[in-house]
Amino acid sequence: MTKMTDLTGAPALPLNTIMAGDCIEVMKGLPEGSVDLIFADPPYNLQLKGELHRPDNSRVDAVDDEWDRFSSFASYDRFTQDWLREARRLLKPDGAIWVIGSYHNIFRVGAAMQDAGFWILNDVVWRKSNPMPNFRGKRFTNAHETMIWASKGEGAKYTFNYEALKALNEGIQMRSDWVLPICNGGERLKTETGEKAHPTQKPMSLLHRVLVGSTNPGDVVLDPFFGTGTTGAVARMLGRDWIGIERDAGYREVAHRRIADVRPFDKSALQVSTSRRAAPRVPFGQLVERGMLRPGEELWSMNGRHKAKVRADGTLIGDDVKGSIHQVGAALEGAPSCNGWTYWCFRRDGKTVPIDVLRQQIRAEMEDRPD
Amino acid sequence: MTKMTDLTGAPALPLNTIMAGDCIEVMKGLPEGSVDLIFADPPYNLQLKGELHRPDNSRVDAVDDEWDRFSSFASYDRFTQDWLREARRLLKPDGAIWVIGSYHNIFRVGAAMQDAGFWILNDVVWRKSNPMPNFRGKRFTNAHETMIWASKGEGAKYTFNYEALKALNEGIQMRSDWVLPICNGGERLKTETGEKAHPTQKPMSLLHRVLVGSTNPGDVVLDPFFGTGTTGAVARMLGRDWIGIERDAGYREVAHRRIADVRPFDKSALQVSTSRRAAPRVPFGQLVERGMLRPGEELWSMNGRHKAKVRADGTLIGDDVKGSIHQVGAALEGAPSCNGWTYWCFRRDGKTVPIDVLRQQIRAEMEDRPD
DNA sequence: ACTACGTGTGAATCCCTCC
DNA sequence: GGGAGGGATTCACACGTAG
After folding, report:
1. How far is the CA of B134 from the C1' of D11 (A)?
2. pLDDT digits (tens, 9 = 90+) for B312-338
3. Which single residue of A11, A61, A250, A358 has CA 20 to 30 Å from B322?
4. Contact criterion met (CB below 8 Å) for A259 and A234
5. Is strand D within 7 Å of residue A190 (CB)?
């Protein structure tokens, strides 16, 4: 493949392009710590009946059952370890990875991810609303696939747009089981002869939820098993940069045309709900400095059971306790911690008002005139 | 343990008893090829670190028991390989095994099962209808556990009561995802002091479906991690013989009393597992994920007086208001509440269509294969 | 008897910034 | 890098008590 470098001599990222070749080799040529998210839909590769192929496409010549079984699992494991090692190298320290699979391969993949140092955050079940039935009635309808979401390592940071996903789910925390239809109808890519362009095309709704939940606009998303480019199409739609790797020229061609047709959403639609966590921090002392609360004034706990007096330095003093609004609240409640902003109230004109109202006033002013 | 033999000199099966001791050692003393089904609920190796509190400051009662602590993945893997080897030895040639776990351990267990020669038939997802939320909002609600169902080896026969399961599922082929509540209320075993008798008691409805589906009356069911004996209780109820292995004397005592109380062929568990299903809630965000509405697209109020723009996370943004379809509708109308589904319309081909039409489409799809 | 409301709790790898 | 401290964060049920 072509080696690209930027002006500093560091290899540049080939953003929004489909790279040709084996993903392990191609990833070796990309710079370490450069990617925000990896979405991988690796080959399931474990149909031991009939033929079995190594990652390099050579056919495994079975001698007997024992040898064949050992050889095939071991060869799939080596392949998995190899691409996972390169994938992890490419991730930024606060990057994350999603891998999708079925019971044929997902257990080996999950164990390999843990062995490679990834830290599993959730396994997410894609529950298909319209799966193919088990025609022979010998097993359960295979109605789901499993995704593993993992950070780069134990304690590593990662992106999780909690509020946006909660909003997507009408105000209820998003669960680890997602009910979504399989990809068919107009979304399913076809060849000129009307056949499926790719046997395992994933629905865009699945990628939408993955990318809204674990990336921000402008992030770089890598898909090492690009296929017909669902990841790229949704990334472009959502204003994320993407890189695809695919060794099949036919799939690359379909993906290229498909992504070129995508109209990105406009910027304002990409702004998603955020939590208070992202809001600027307001020290309680500022309420006193600005005269919103007077030193000596009494605050009352939300439940009305406790009171404390405001001091000029923005601390509280109650019976035998003094400290921050949080510390005094925790001490009075005998709790391990306490959010003083939602715990304390002041009184004006006979009404009891949470002090958080004052913080919101300050934040509103800051939005008009940011520092 | 005591060695038992029957009249022919072959070791006899200690049917319908709880054996004391470490399951690997105990299994070594049982005869090869003697068991029809194994249900195993091994330690999950949760690796919990500090304490966790709910937003109301109450402390979560974590699984911190000694039996769930392993020094490393390697030591957990050795343990898993050892008990799986003995389990497989005990199975009849046409026997089968179920193992339940979470993302902490299930990938390692699944890979070890394949390595041990088991042949996976399905992975089955237990979708909890009432899981514990993720209190800190840092991950998805961990709302499911995974069960692996496997035969003794590739091509081995196994029991699958297809019609019985179909009947259990109101005439529709049983899928690989089962919606069942966690074990609480009256079914949850308590000590005299009112604490949980076992931290991870499984619901009887789960075992009911497993045993109805993959055993016949008179079959022998072995549970090497017996705990407080859910497997034994359901087996007795359904007229199956059972063997439990448990090393904790306290758990054995609770299980013994519990199983003695079971009336065989009680139909109560059946009623639990076929509990009625509520009308499915469809989040508005799903219309966006599924491409039925585009982020950036405008919606119009039914009366034509207001409009708002759809965002990628399924919220709306109008003049000075943003939030859910319901919130924005209420704000624009100055009303205390608003049903956004009937309030908002989208435009296609010059026609104005209520968004509720799209929700009805999704519900219709779900009715094809409910659960 | 029935409803309304408050409380308790479940296999959990659950914060982040600043000094 | 470790410790301190601000302050953000929950859904579905079962059960008990009040009205």
Report:
1. 9
2. 899 999 988 999 999 999 899 988 778
3. A358
4. no
5. no
